[in-house]
Structures are given as structure tokens and as C-alpha cells.
Write a structure and sequence with these properties.
The complex is a heterodimer of chains A (about 160) and B (about 500).
Chain A lengths: L1 H6 L12 H24 L7 H18 L2 H7 L4 H18 L12 E6 L3 E6 H26 L3
Antiparallel strand pairs in A: 1-2
Chain B lengths: L1 H4 L3 H16 L3 H29 L2 E4 L10 E4 L1 H21 L5 H5 L2 H17 L3 H20 L4 H32 L4 H10 L5 H18 L8 H6 L3 H25 L5 H25 L3 H22 L2 H32 L15 H15 L6 H14 L3 H26 L15 H19 L1 H16 L2 H4 L7
Antiparallel strand pairs in B: 1-2
Helix pairs in contact in B: 2-3, 2-6, 3-4, 4-6, 4-12, 4-15, 4-19, 4-20, 6-7, 6-12, 7-8, 8-10, 10-12, 12-14, 12-15, 13-14, 13-18, 14-15, 14-17, 14-18, 15-16, 15-17, 15-19, 15-20, 16-18, 16-19, 17-18
The chains are: A mainly alpha (about 160), B mainly alpha (about 500).
Amino acid sequence: MKNTLKKAGYNKVQKQMNDVFLQFTAKLVFFIVIMFSFNLFFAGHYTPGGGFVGGLLAAAALILLLIAYDRKTLESMVPIDFRLVITIGLVFAAGIPTLSFLFGTPFFTHQHTYVEIPVFGEVALHSAVLFDIGVFLTVAATALLIIVLVGEADE
Amino acid sequence: MTTNILPLLPIMIPFFAGIIMLFTGQRPLVHRVIATISSLLIIISAIWLVVLVHRNGTIATFLGDWAPPFGISVVIDMAAALLLLTTAIITLFTVIYSFQSIGVEREKFYYYVMVMFMISGVNGAFSTGDIFNMFVFFEVFLLASYVLITLGGTKIQLQEGFKYILVNMISSNFFVLALAYLYSVTGSLNMADIHTKLEGFEGDYSIMSLLAVVFLFVFATKAGVFPLYFWLPGSYYAPPMPVLVLFGALLTKVGIYAIARTYSLFFIDNVEFTHQMLLLLALATIIMGSIGALSYADMKRIIIYNILIAVGIILVGVAMMDKAGMLGAFYYLIHDMIIKAALFMLVGFLIYRTGETNAERLGGLIKIHPITGWMFFIAALSLAGVPPLPGFYGKLFIVQSTFANDNYIAGILVLISSLVVLYSVIRIFISAFWGEDMDFSRLKPVKSDKLLFASIAMVIVSVAFGLAADALYPMFEMAAQSFYDPASYSNYLPEVE
């Protein structure tokens, strides 16, 4: 935002932009969006959703913060190296299907079981969720990395 | 157990190598070691695959344990296995070649990671048995190649990279379009299943001829067939040599492989139209490539136009689609992958050593680099197809097949193109290695032991392939069989009632 203003000819831009409305709403909406992204992620197995959409939405939530504040604030809020997140995501996405080699089954073979958990009752455990976590992390971090890098370019 | 794991190794090893390299961060030395080791591992798994396929026939694994026509299958027949092995050998030597030529800056910015991801995609496209999955693997290696062509960000790279991205994106869109057509016509995406369905179909096939045109449009753009090769000479000229080695040796060949697969499995009815069209375009490609190869003095450009000639020659064999034609096409395909890599490496060495790309400004280099000079000579003869060297067998079978099918013009054009190829490459040899001495003080003192090791090794691989061509004949017969007799490819599917 600061750069956009500078380009538009505003020479004196304060160090911290104070757009109260945007910043306040962003804080609230951030949690709603990120919760919805988790919801989509877990809904993915039987209903529409999944790692890809969830990841995009999580990235969108963080980009909202990036727009409302600036990059430094985002980094202090989420002190993670996105490159590392992409790599970890790839490890999950590629490693989990490969684990099925250990069972002698074809690549990508789905393993699942049901367990009893006191409060929730019967819960299904799927190896597909682990794969989807990989997709989620990779997509979210890639989208964020691209936006941050493009935004960085004009500084 | 091995049938489940082994077919995926050539795809997964480079992928995991890429991930491990990402974890180690920007450390070129570590990347080099990992890239070399993983290339060696791919070679081992590919050799194992060739042996196993030779012994037991086609290996197929069904991802996720889904029943064959519905899930994605990875099918390795002899054709795929041989291509995987060739790809792996080229990868190893290109990685070694990159050590001293690509530059530390590019190495830091994940050059080897992208090479490995690209190899993963190329191997996937060779080994998948599902046409949509083939599209996905095309995208995997194209995305990596977008990075490789622009990595470094020099002006010419960005300019040509943009064209490359645009052309490939458009053709990928048409790929999806063609797949949608195909699915709505046949109701299946498994290539073997589509073949069995079409073979048993009694009705009107005319829509398949339309599909043949759309598929040819897509793959011709990737393979660089006339008239859709326009992007190739410019885009391939831009990236640094090791990238050019990979692109020239592998990427166009994936397009050719895809054409051969689809034209043998899907377009079996209206052959007079589809294969005749392919033949005409192949001949036009040979002619345009010859004109290009003769008209430049720039070493890189001459070899790039030689890619086009080779694409044309292989496709002439594919268009014949009989035993001799496919056998020739396959011999020539493998030969061309190896020899193009060798020639690009040798030309790259000359460019790095002298800083010149124009062959006419060089001269007398044989006094300083005698071994390299004679290796270049052997590579040139091999490219043109002089007998004991491997190009000969491919051309022999292709010409034999064209004459057997009364396509005399095609046969004669292939023979004339050999002369053009020989002339264009020997011209580089004569002006660079013989002739008046250039000013030797202008030579750059580059470290070149690994460059020379890789390029000479590729020439030796090519010569060995030529000498062993007779012993390898049964394997190539198997490989060709899955094209001219597609039923032998599709019989891995269990019988459906």
C-alpha cells in the first residue's frame, strides 16, 4: 500500500500506514477465512473441498493481512520461511504415497482405519489426509511466496 | 512386489532428489553430489526395468490399487523402458557437464532441483499408460523447463522464454480440449482401454480423424514439426548450453513419443488420412530443417536445425507404422537422443573455450584439442548415419519401409537429408578444427576436464550403441511391436466381460 501511494505521487508517506478500518476488519476476517479454509480442508474427503482449495484460502487469509499491514508485520505475525513450508509440503505429498511401498501395495494405495475416541465417538483415520496436508502446505506457501516476491520487486 | 515399486522409481527418484536438494538450501556442492547420485540410481533402476521387461514382457502397476480402466496405470513396455534408460544416461552426463558450465549463480538458485523435476516429468510422460496423466506429466516437465529457460534472467532468455511459455500454454490448452473430445467419444482415458474399445467399434470413425488433427496440433507444437516449429530455433538458442542439451535431447522426443503412441493406439481406422498427413508434415519438417541447417554459420543454430531434421526422419518412420518403419523410428529416436546430447555438449565446449558461436571465426583447433576434434568428427559421422555408427540402422529401416510402401519420394528425401546433415556438421568441423589457425591467445582459460569427460562419454555411448545394435535388436523389436501391433501393448488389461 505504501508503495502504491508513493507511485501515485504521495512523497510523504508515514512509516506505518494507519488505515484503521481495513486493519481492524482484516484482523477479524482473517480468523473467519482461516477457519473456513480448515473447514474446507477437512471436508475434502467426502464433500467438495480438499487440500488445494483449503491451501489457496489460507494463503488468501494471510495475503489479506499483508495488504492491511505490511510485509514486516506479516513476518512478525507468521515467522515462517515459506520455502521451507513448500519443501515440507512436498515431503508429505510425495512421501506418504511412497510409504505404501512398505506394505507391498501399489503407489498411492489408500490406508484407512476407524478408532474410538472418547468425545467424538468413532473417527475415521485416512492416509489421504496426510497427503492432503502436503498439498495444503505446498499450495498455501507457493501462493504466498509468489505474492510476497512480486510485491518485493518494486522496493 | 517389484512390479508395484519398480515402474515408479524413475519418476520418484528425481522427485525426491529435488526435495532433498530444496532442504539443503543454496549449497551448490551438495546439490551436485545429490544430483549425480540420483542420476546413477535412475540409471540402475532403468537398466533393471529393461532387463525385467525383456524377460517378462510389459510391466504395469495400477496407482491406488484401482481397477485398470478406471484408475491411473503406469505401464512400462520395452519402448518406455529403453527411453527411460536413455533419458537417465543423458541426465547423468548433463549433470556432470553442468558442474563447469552452468555457473555458480544458477546452481545456487535451484538449477539441479529444476533439472530433477523436469526429468521426473519426462520419465512420467514416457511411462504412464493414461492419456490424461500424460498431460499432467507434460505440464510437470514444461513448468520445470519454463524455470530452466529463464533461470539467470538475461535479456535474450526472458525474451525467448516468454515466447516459449506462451506457445506451450496454448498448445497445452488444446491438449485438454483434445482430451475432452476423446473422453466424450470413447468414455475412457486409459490408452490401452481406448484402443480395445475403438478396435471393437463398428460405427462411424470420422470424428477420430478430427481428433487426430487436434492431437497432432498439440504434439507437433511440442515436438517442433512443420509448421509449428517456428518457436523452436529461437527459444532453444536462448538458454545456456547444459539446458539446451536437456531440451534438445529430451523435450522434442517426448512429443515424438506421444505422437507415436496416440497414432498407433487411437487412430487406427482412417490411416490413409491421418498417417498420410503425418508423413507430409514430417517431410516438410525435413525440408525446412535442411534449409535452416545449411543457411547458418552459427554452430548452435546448425545443431538446433538438425533437431528438426531428426524429428522429421523419425516421424517418417512413425507414419509408415509397419514393422520396419517403427523399428527404424525407434532406433533413430534413441540414437538421436544420445548423439544430439553429445553434439550439443561438444559445441558447448567450443563456445565456452573460444567465446565464439560462429564457426567461421574459429580455426586450427585440432592442434590444441586433438581428441575433442576427432570425437566431434565421429559424432558428425554418427549423426549423418555412416555405417557402423548407430544412425545408419535407423535410417536403413526407415528407408526400407518407405520403399516397401511405395513412398519413394519420402525415402529419397530421407537419404538426401543425410547428406545435408553430414555437410552442415562437417562444415563446423572443417572450419573450427582445420583451416587457418585462429588467434590462440583469445582462447579462454576455462576449466574443462568435466565438460570434456561428459561430451566424450556421450560420444562413446553413441559408438557403443552402434556396435551393439545387433545385440540389442530383440529389444528394439519388442519396442517397435507395441506400436505396429498395438494389441500387444493393450493386452496388459485384464479381460472385461
